[in-house]
Every structure is written in structure tokens, then in C-alpha cells.
User: Which sequence fits this backbone?
């Protein structure tokens, strides 16, 4: 499985993904699940993926091919599309088509349908920051004031902390802390989500990736935070009267 | 959905279930999901249920019928079975048979199979405390030193807190606090789990229910604990350095 989470805060976007891919317990590999499409200053788009690797890789490859195609226009290239909504729409169409094709190919052998979902976040110069969750069918929902975070993959373990601390007014620093703690809970409770992690921060109106960080297994800062959080939870637990 | 959790601690068993049942969002009802079979001092058995209400109700009705049947013997009545293992086996067989029958009945109308799972916990005089998770197929797993808690239903939201604080040495008081906080996280993050709650404590070797409590919506103690936990989480969050 996978865990990816995105926050749309007033101050900017915070995105975090793990990198574990598995086809059964004995076939575990590390694949990046966060992808950047950028024309710095003009637009920045980040895509995070969950689900069947063949679907997500093919979809990404097609999006990249369309971006590099000299004949590309605003209906095919996400670097030319005039709005983030149309970016989400191009990605949704590509995901849906790829998923259908691959399901069709594997229909003879497997009842299980190949499936995948994505989080798409970004901003175009002059437009608003936007963040979408794209479903396997290609349709999508958008993060709003009321729901400033979106998750894909193994989202349940890490939801309680986000429900409690994230509002649109949360700072970018607190946002990073929250997604890392949300990931920490998920890593502890579910083996199919694994290090290293990819984190990206996009400040409002920067239209470029402001900070990007890969957090490796044994990362000191992350370990310290994870231990401090465990200790804090245990202390809070002890202090609460029943 | 449902959330039920059971702890098998050195000091005894702690069990908690919600009561929400739904068939779609507009058909929500309250049904007890915790059932007691007791011959105080000789044996105590608690069953918690998750899944299709028609399957769990019919299974429970059959177990009760077998207990009351004058012809019942140790292979049919869970109050006569010589060990907790055989209690689990009788319940597993009954669940599996009921599930198959109901799936068969509904096959014409629905692709979705009726399904249900159960947690069975208890002790017989002279035997050990034991706790089992019974799968829809009738097979089961048991709580052990390494895994002193079992969950059914919407288990993911409430797992991180249990992973962090529960060991076999946890006291009964701390166990109750932990399952209530685990339930609190689930209630906050998932609408299909709802109050009131049923909690039971069975002290080791008592072979009877030591304490039983129904926690209603607006219960002062539970609300206070829930608020204190939220405040403690938020404070811990603020204090942790990234």
C-alpha cells in the first residue's frame, strides 16, 4: 500500500508520501510516489500516487510524454493547461483511460481490477493554489476551507491527528510536523507503508517548489520527533484521569 | 460499521463496543453489539459482533437457543463446552453456517456477500482467560502476550494509541482508558461508529463480569476525558520540535 497526504493551508501546500510498493509480502520495492511538473514562477504541479504501480507509472509516463510533445496544446499538456482545474481534468482523463486499458488486459487472468488514485496540488501564476484528489474513474474532489487535507492509500491510521490539529490557518512548519506525525502513526501500524519519505512544501504564490526533502530510514530528526511524539502520547495518556 | 476492541491483560479482560448499525446513511439505528453468557463463578463469555446485522443476530439467537435447549450438550452449548477453545469453535461454526445460509438466500439479489466477525473473550473456572477473533469463515486467531488486543470493524483509526500503550502488564484502569481513547479517535474520524458505548471488565479468575457500563451520548466523564485527550494531543503537538 501507500500513504500520501496533502495539506492546503493559507500559507501554502505541504505534501508527504512514502515510497513502499508491494506485490505480496515477499516482493517489496521502493518507488517514488511524488512527481513534480514545474515551470518555475509560472506554475508548479505536484502529483502523488497510490494504487497499482503499472497504472500510476503508465499514467505519469503519458503525462510526461504529452508535456514533451512539440505538438502539445492546452488540452493535452499539464504545463500548458490554463487552469489547475483543467490540469486535474487532464490527469483524471489519463488515469481513467490507463486504468481501463490495464484492467482490460488483465481481465482474463485476474478478477481484481487494477486501480489507482492521485493527489494533484499546485498553482498557476495569477490563479489560486488548488489541491485535488483524483479517483480511479477520473473524477475528482477538491480540498476546501472545511477540508484542508486530502489523503490517499492507507489513510485511516494517520487521520485522527490531522482531524485534531489541521485548519487552513495552520503554519507551514506546523503543517510539516502534522503530516510527519500522521505518517509516523501509519508507519507504526501498517507494514505496507515504508520509509524513505518524500516531503515538499510550496509557498503561496511562489509557483515553484519552495522546499523538498527526502527522509531516509534512520533520519535523526525524524526519529527524534517520532520518539518525542510517542513519549508525549504516553505521558498524556498517564496524566488523563478516567 | 462498527468498532469493537478487546484487551487481554494479565489482570483481566477489557471489552468495548459501539452500538451504531447502518444500512446506508439514511438508515441508522442503535443495536447492542456486546453479549454476555454467564454462569457466575463457573464461566463467563462475552461476544462482540461486527458486520451484517442479520448474520450476527441470527448467530446469537442460535447460540442462545442452544444454551436453553434441554437436549444441549458440550458440543452445542457454549455454557457446557469444556474449554474456551471449544466455545470459540462452536461460535465459529455457527457464524460460518449462518453467513453461508444468508449469502445463499441473497445471492439472486445482491453480489455483495453478507459477512460478519466476532470477538469472543472469557474464562472457565480452572482454565485460562482467553480471547479470540472469529473470522466470517469460522476460523479464528487468539490474543497472545505479543498481541494483547484484538479489534473488529473500523479498527484503523484507533490502533495507533493501542500500539503505543498496551502491553499485557497494563492495569485494568489503564486498559479502560486506552480502549475509550481508541474509541474516541474512531468516533471523531468515522461517522459510521456511534454512541452509546458498552464497556465490560472481567477480572482474572473471577469467572463473572466484574464491571459493566453503558456510556451514553453526552456522558460527562467520557466527554471530559475526550476533551482532555484532545487538549493533551494539541499541547504535545505544539511542544514537539521539528
Assistant:
Amino acid at each position: 500500500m501507500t500513504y500520501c497526504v496533502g495539506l492546503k493551508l493559507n500559507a501554502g501546500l505541504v505534501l508527504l508520501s512514502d515510497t513502499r510498493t508491494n506485490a505480496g509480502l515477499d516482493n517489496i520495492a521502493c518507488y517514488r510516489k511524488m512527481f513534480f511538473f514545474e515551470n518555475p514562477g509560472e506554475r508548479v504541479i505536484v502529483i502523488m500516487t497510490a494504487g497499482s504501480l503499472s497504472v500510476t507509472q503508465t499514467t505519469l509516463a503519458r503525462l510526461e510524454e504529452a508535456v514533451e510533445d512539440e505538438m502539445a496544446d492546452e488540452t493535452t499538456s499539464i504545463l500548458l493547461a490554463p487552469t489547475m482545474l483543467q490540469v486535474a481534468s487532464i490527469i483524471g482523463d489519463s488515469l481513467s483511460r490507463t486504468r481501463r486499458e490495464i484492467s482490460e488486459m488483465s481481465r482474463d487472468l485476474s478478477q481484481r481490477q487494477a486501480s489507482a488514485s492521485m493527489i494533484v496540488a499546485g498553482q498557476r501564476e495569477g490563479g489560486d493554489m488548488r489541491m485535488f484528489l483524483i479517483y480511479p474513474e477520473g473524477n475528482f474532489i477538491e480540498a476546501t476551507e472545511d477540508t484542508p487535507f486530502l489523503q490517499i492509500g492507507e489513510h485511516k491510521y494517520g487521520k485522527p491527528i490531522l482531524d485534531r490539529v489541521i485548519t487552513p490557518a495552520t503554519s507551514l512548519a506546523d503543517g510539516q510536523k502534522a503530516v510527519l506525525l500522521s505518517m509516523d502513526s501509519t508507519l507504526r501500524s501498517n507494514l505496507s507503508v515504508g520509509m524513505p519519505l518524500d516531503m515538499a512544501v510550496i509557498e503561496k504564490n511562489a509557483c515553484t517548489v519552495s522546499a523538498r526533502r527526502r527522509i531516509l530510514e534512520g533520519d535523526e530528526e525524524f526519529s527524534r520527533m517520532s520518539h518525542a511524539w510517542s513519549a508525549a502520547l504516553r505521558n498524556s495518556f498517564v496524566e488523563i484521569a478516567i
Chain A has a mean pLDDT of 93. The interface with chain B takes residues 154, 156-157, 159-161, 163-165, 173-174, 176-178, 180-181, 185, 188-189, 221, 225, 228-230, 232-237, 239-242 of chain A (CB under 8 Å).
